[in-house]
Amino acid sequence: MAAPLRIVVMGTGPFAVPMFESLRESPHEIVAAVTRPDHAPPGRRPPPNPMRAAATAAGLPILDPERVNDPAAVAAVAALRPDLFVVCDYGQILSRELLGIPPLGGINLHGSLLPRHRGAAPVQWAILAGDDVTGVSVIHMTPGLDAGNVITAAATPIGSHETAAELERRLAEMGRGPVVEAIALLQEAVAAGRPAGVPQDAAAATRAPRITKADGVIDWTHDAARIERMRRALEPWPRATTFFARGDGVRQRLVLEDVAVVASPAPDSAAGTVLVAGGGRLVVACGGGTALEILRLVPEGRRSMSAAEFLRGSPLREGTRLG
């Protein structure tokens, strides 16, 4: 059995915590955690940092440099004398100099089956793309974005009604075993004098850039299936959103909480047209002659409600255009 390693864990978000817990249960020693610094506008609390909370509870030293590749940060990490970096949901790309500190370099747990969906939001983009299957990959890191050799991977189907939040929780738990397995495989490869893992096919790579608030605004010219996936992919943030002009001229924001693809009663209608607004149903025309039924929504400034509840007190009528 290979010798236990001195590991520096780098992470910020919740995706990294199950992996961190599995490393704590392994023979390896976690010598410190590196995470993003906490920032918040004056008078407000910083957003949660699950990795910081987990490392604090474990009594570990924590480094939170603004830029991890700055000379001072590199020196602080080097002083820890790590054998390996284990990175997940961190938020910064490591430089070649930083990756050169541990003798074994770094491994990264990523929430997709690489090379598909390289980038900051692989879970959301897997749902948006309509993928049937996704998974986790552990790669031997390079300075390129998610481009290293894949050491190990695990696949899982995407549920037909699964949201990004639900899928991300499942994938985070799936990452527990592959990370520990990848460390053993990396040690074996280094001892044998060969590269660890299998090179990615760069020609098959797709991008999964960070999601922005603008990504949540619905384009009704997309087909209904695409918009239904968007509703699931952008939960809990920024959520699928549309607008309509009320009779008083006020533009109201609507967040779609639950939707279903339905047969269109008027396939030739312009995208975004409300086709049904009565009998407890709210159906909207989408691109390609398709239609989407809005089952639950959150009107701006109000609570979550069913379509029937919303229509009882809303001026929204058939023929209204959303968007």
Question: What do these coordinates show?
Answer:
- By secondary structure, the protein is of the alpha/beta class.
- The chain folds into 2 domains: 6-204, Rossmann fold (3-Layer(aba) Sandwich); 213-312, Formyl transferase, C-terminal domain (Methionyl-tRNA Fmet Formyltransferase, Chain A, domain 2, Roll), CATH 3.10.25.
- Helix content is 24%, strand content 24%.
- It is built from 9 helices and 13 strands.
- The protein has helices at residues 17-24, 50-57, 71-78, 96-99, 122-128, 164-174, 176-192, 224-233, 307-312, and strands at residues 6-11, 29-34, 62-63, 84-88, 106-110, 133-140, 149-157, 241-245, 251-262, 274-278, 281-285, 291-299, 305-306.
- The chain has a 7-stranded mixed sheet with strand order 3-2-1-4-5-6-7. Strands 8, 9, 10, 11, 12 and 13 form a 6-stranded antiparallel sheet that branches.
- A hairpin with a 5-residue loop joins strand 11 (281-285) and strand 12.
- Helix 1 (17-24) packs across helix 7 and helix 5 (122-128) packs antiparallel against helix 8.
- The radius of gyration is 23 Å and the shape is elongated.
- The N and C termini lie far apart (61 Å).
- The mean pLDDT is 96.
List keywords for this structure.
323 residues; alpha/beta; seven-stranded mixed β-sheet; 2 domains; Methionyl-tRNA Fmet Formyltransferase, Chain A, domain 2; Rossmann fold; elongated
